[in-house]
Amino acid sequence: MYAARKIVPLSTKNSLQWVQNYTTRTKIPIANLSKGAKGSAILATNVMRSFFDNGLIDDARALFDEMPERDVVMWTAMIAGYTSCNQYVHSWTVFCEMVNNWENPNAFTLSNVLKACKSLQCLARGGLVHGMAIKLGLEGSLYVDNALMDMYATCCISMEDACSIFRDMKEKNMVTWTTLITGYTHRGDGYGGLQVFREMLLDEAELNPHSFSIAIRACAAIGSNTFGRQIHAAVIKNGFGSNLPVMNSMLDMYCRCGFLSEANAYFYEMSEKNLITWNTLLAGYERLGSKEALNIFSQMESEGFRPNCFTFTSITAACANLAVLNCGKQVHGGIICRGLQGNLVLANALIDMYAKCGSIADSRKIFNEMSDRNLVSWTSMMIGYGAHGYGKEAVKLFDEMVVSGIRPDRIVFMAVLSACSHAGLIDEGLRCFESMRNYNVTPDQEIYGCVVDLLGRGGRVEEAYQLIKGMPFKPNESVWGALLGACKAHKLPSMGKLAALKVLDLRPNKVGAYVMLSNIYAAEGKWGESARMRKLMRRTGSRKEAGRSWIEVRNQVYSFVVGDKVGSHTEWAHGVVELLILHMKEAGYIPDLHCLIHDLEDGT
To answer: Which pLDDT band holds residue 4 (cuts at 50, 70, 90)?
Structure first.
């Protein structure tokens, strides 16, 4: 397009005149342009595309409006330009103008406007374009069919319409296959995506790096390391083993499948790395709560990579999971130094991090300083208040959120109910539960579990049981588990038996229920039944998972497990425990050992 792409004029008040002057000034060979108005139209179209490439959307529109005659190429360039700049509504508006001006679109016009319909998630408009494609005889065009398939895969509730387009296509290319695989994978159907990829291989279709990347993502979506390894072998066989996007996808697959040792080995074998590579490995370690994420972050910076918002989101979440406040503050400082403190996602992550690290005041400070808040911001703050026992503050924040115009969702109600439960605010929690219908939120198993826990902690166990009986669906293990915990806390063996048996009926390997039943029978003197529960528990091969605690002292994280005797820090821990026991005795505290009957047998 000659030198036009490099020119960015300060003003385009008379863009058409500018184009004509530019043609004369640059002495473009007349052989390269058609004579007359058509020549100016071609150059104007090229300049218009250059404006869009440089983000000069208003200038492109001004030039378009000044053109006395517009052909299909110019209309298409305008629609494509708006679509490429994420101005999808304007793209659709120009398309409507084009049709109203009796200018018939071509295949490229329809493919670009279908991209806009897809991004707008507007199935109705996409259907209208499909109808026009049939009317104009363009349905068989590869560009149109690929765009139609992509639109239907994104906008429909199922893949049926996209597959119908795919089956009727007489010609397919790699974009066709990749679009269908992507459609399945993005809606969480990794198996469907892998099935299409298998058909692609059997059809001996042309493969490219993107088709492998999306197939690898499908493996990650279903957590299948086996399929992932097979595709890894196919990647190497087809010569894409050194392609960076493919390598990043492979790394992500190993991380999401939980194979961090393989991911780590693959990471160090990679011939090339970019920031996405480091972010992928960092996110993998963060998801599994490993403190190795902190080392990865330090190593990344030492190798000269500048962290971005995604990096800081992962490392902030890692600090939250490990409850390392000092590290979290250092990360926060890095965010401020790079001018990223205004990023909404990062601010939400910081609220969560400070709350989990025990500094709820810092969480509130971040929340108050936010210029913009979304549902996640409010929810994170409410969860933080609930975890710290500030139920009244959580309820007050909920009311403020509703007044601000943000509608609560299921997660918000769970956060408030949990906060009320831990703070003993039964009436406030029930008021919140009753208000769910005002926001078209239907209580599910988890919500009912929260309400049962709320009532149970407050001693209203019979009321909790009646709530369970009145549920519109069969209670699951978590609901009965909440009732079981309440019976244990308030020493109600009869109802505790019922709840424990319900839990075991739904989840036979639930160790806690066996222990609870065994203890109830032992307290009643039914030693035979107690022993039978222990035998059944041993047959399941399950054991209660030992709890782990950790604390940060002088930038060092120390972890503790029941019965742990390894490490010098355990001597300090036992010394502190003995001191606490002494203080408890002096305060006149009498421990309740009833719930610990026979627990030593299963080693907990």
So the answer is: very low
- pTM of the model as a whole: 0.76
Q: How far apart (Å, rounded) are the C-alpha atoms in residues 399 and 383?
A: 15
Query: CA distances (Å), 481 to each of 16, 238, 486, 516, 522, in order?
Result: 74, 52, 9, 11, 20
Q: Tell me if residue 32 falls in helix, strand or coil.
A: helix
User: What does the pLDDT read at residue 22?
Assistant: 47
- What angle, 0 to 180 degrees and rounded to 10, lies between the N-to-C axes of helices 260-269 and 244-256? 160
Backbone angles phi, psi at 549, to 5 degrees: -120, 155
Q: Residue 414: is its pLDDT beyond 50? A: yes
DSSP letter string over 41-52? HHHHHHHHHHHH
Q: Which residue ranges make up each domain of the chain? A: 37-171, 548-587
Give the distance between the most distant pair of CA atoms in the chain: 106
Parallel, antiparallel, or unpaired: how do β-strands 548-553 and 556-561 relate?
A: antiparallel
- CA–CA separation, 550 vs 547, rounded Å? 10
* Under 8 Å between Cβ of 117 and 83: no
By CB atoms closer than 10 A (0-12, 13-18, 19+), residue 375 is middle
Under the banding of pLDDT at 50, 70 and 90, the label for residue 599 is very low
Topology given in CATH for the domain delimited by 37-171: 1.25.40
Closest CA to 282 of 251, 257, 303: 251
Window from 32-41, 325-334, 384-393, 406-415 with minimum mean pLDDT: 32-41
Q: Give 411's contacts (C-beta < 8 A, 6+ positions apart).
A: 379
| Count of C-beta atoms within a 10 Å radius of residue 10 | 5
- Among 101-105, 188-192, 257-261, 279-283, the range of highest mean pLDDT: 279-283
140: which residues sit within 8 A by CB, 6+ positions away? 170, 171
**What pLDDT shows up at residue 7?**
37
Q: Which residue has the tokens 């719930």?
A: 595
- For residue 369, CA distances in Å to 350, 373, 570 come to 12, 10, 41
Q: Could you tell me if 516 and 544 are in contact, meaning their C-beta atoms sit under 8 angstroms apart?
A: no
- Of 259, 185, 277, 255, nearest to 222 by C-alpha is 185
Residue-wise pLDDT for 154-189, tens only, equals 998 889 999 999 998 888 898 999 999 999 998 888
- pLDDT of amino acid 484: 86
3-class SS of residue 441 = coil
* Collapsed DSSP state (helix, strand, coil) of residue 334: helix
Q: What is the mean pLDDT of residues 313-332?
A: 92
Confidence of residue 95 (pLDDT cuts 50, 70, 90): very high
Q: What is the DSSP string of 337-396?
A: HTT-TT-HHHHHHHHHHHHHTT-HHHHHHHHHH-SS--HHHHHHHHHHHHHTT-HHHHHH
Average model confidence (pLDDT) for the chain?
84
Distance CA 279, CA 300 (A): 9
